[in-house]
Design goal:
about 0% strand; mainly alpha; about 70 residues; 2 helices; single chain
């Protein structure tokens, strides 16, 4: 009597695991791609370090005339 190497449930589990692995791989690739795009546009990134940012402060009407 030969020894059965795999049961039918193991085949189904393996196919589900492969599918989940592919989904996770696509998610990681998406996050990596978004990170690369954001880093390449580094001029648009301003960190928040609890200091007033000049780009966000409104201009005074009096300060423009001087």
């Amino acid at each position: 009597m030969p020894i059965q190497a795999e049961h039918e449930i193991h085949e189904r589990r393996r196919s589900r695991n492969i599918g989940l692995g592919l989904v996770l791989l696509c998610f990681v690739a998406l996050v990596f791609g978004l990170t690369v795009v954001k880093v390449r546009q580094g001029g648009l990134i301003e960190g928040y370090d609890h200091q007033p940012r000049v780009s966000l402060t409104p201009l005074d009407a009096e300060g423009d005339a001087q």
